[in-house]
Amino acid sequence: MRLFLLLLLLFPAQPGQLSAGEQPDLRLDAEEKQQGEFFIAIVTGLDKPPRLWFDGTLYKMFLQPDGSFRALLPVGVMQTPGRYAVLAVNERWQEKIPVQVHSGNYPVQNVWLDKKTSGLRATIEEKQRVKAALKTQTDTRLWAGTFLMPAEGRKSSPFGVKRSYNGAPVSSYHKGIDIAAPQGTVIKSPAGGKVILCGYEADAFKVHGNTVLIDHGHGVTSIYLHMHEIDVSPGDMVHKGDRIGTIGSTGISTGPHLHWGVYLYGTSVDPELFVQRAY
């Protein structure tokens, strides 16, 4: 909040840089969201994207076909419920909308690992490569419509549940959904995109296991963990429904399953939101 107030002082409201005679305008799809969801922010009436702030983080806005600028602002699962604000600002204009973040009321899940698996730790290379790829922000939008579920099977663990390993205190939360299915079950790309990372258990990916990460553009990425076979390579363009590999049990895994996660600007959100509706 202090950051928002400072920006308001630095950039007093003045007539904005207009586009096609419009007055600048910031709109949100809603003023209340739960942890794990996201706000859709749209700015019209400007020739260039403004700076967009939420919870102390600056987000890039992307040009849309109608000339507006849009960003999908993630609400983290661990974000403290309460009052916040979304602020759009440039050198001559500003607008702020108060918003409310509610608890997702995620339950605690107890996960039991054997001694060999519980002793595994992510390598530095594994963590750095995945973290960097998840923050990819490509100007070109590569998906259209709703996402597919990437594999057929039983949803064995939902998004957002807090994790306790071997009876220890809660130390993390589930950043995707798990789909349990026999080894070899086909995994499909849920939407159009570009493969930007392939990692292998035999080559430093000790926790994630065999991994694929897809950039869908406009700050949206998706990740696929614990795979058996990987049928794509970095740089490949994939379409909705294309095969990218098969389900396995590599890395830290208690049995054959796919962990599927969707990220906005590097923050995990509920992937099924993209299955239920087109954004």
Summarize the SSE layout with pairings.
Blueprint: H1 2-10, E1 25-28, E2 32-34, E3 38-44, E4 51-54, E5 57-59, E6 62-63, E7 69-74, E8 82-89, E9 94-102, E10 108-111, H2 115-118, H3 124-134, E11 154-157, E12 162-165, E13 172-173, E14 177-180, E15 186-188, E16 193-199, E17 210-217, E18 220-230, E19 237-238, E20 243-247, E21 257-264, E22 267-269, H4 272-276
Parallel strand pairs: 2-9, 10-12
Antiparallel strand pairs: 1-3, 3-7, 4-5, 4-8, 6-7, 8-9, 11-14, 12-13, 14-21, 15-20, 16-17, 16-19, 17-18, 18-20, 18-21, 21-22
Protein name: M23 family metallopeptidase
Pfam family, one: Peptidase_M23
Domain M23ase beta-sheet core: 173-271
Question: How would you portray this structure in words?
Answer:
Pfam families: Peptidase_M23. Keywords: Signal. This is M23 family metallopeptidase. It comes from Prosthecochloris aestuarii. The protein has 279 residues and is mainly beta. It contains four helices and 22 strands. The relative contact order is 0.16. It is globular and about 60 Å long. The chain is 10% helix and 40% strand. Residues 1-20 have low confidence and may be disordered. Strands 11, 14, 15, 16, 17, 18, 19, 20, 21 and 22 form a ten-stranded antiparallel sheet that branches. Strands 2-9-8-4-5 form a five-stranded mixed sheet, covered by helices on one side. The protein has a four-stranded antiparallel sheet with strand order 1-3-7-6, with no helix packed on it. It has two domains: 25-102, Immunoglobulin-like; 108-276, Glucose Permease (Domain IIA) (Distorted Sandwich). The protein has helices at 2-10, 115-118, 124-134, 272-276; strands at 25-28, 32-34, 38-44, 51-54, 57-59, 62-63, 69-74, 82-89, 94-102, 108-111, 154-157, 162-165, 172-173, 177-180, 186-188, 193-199, 210-217, 220-230, 237-238, 243-247, 257-264, 267-269.
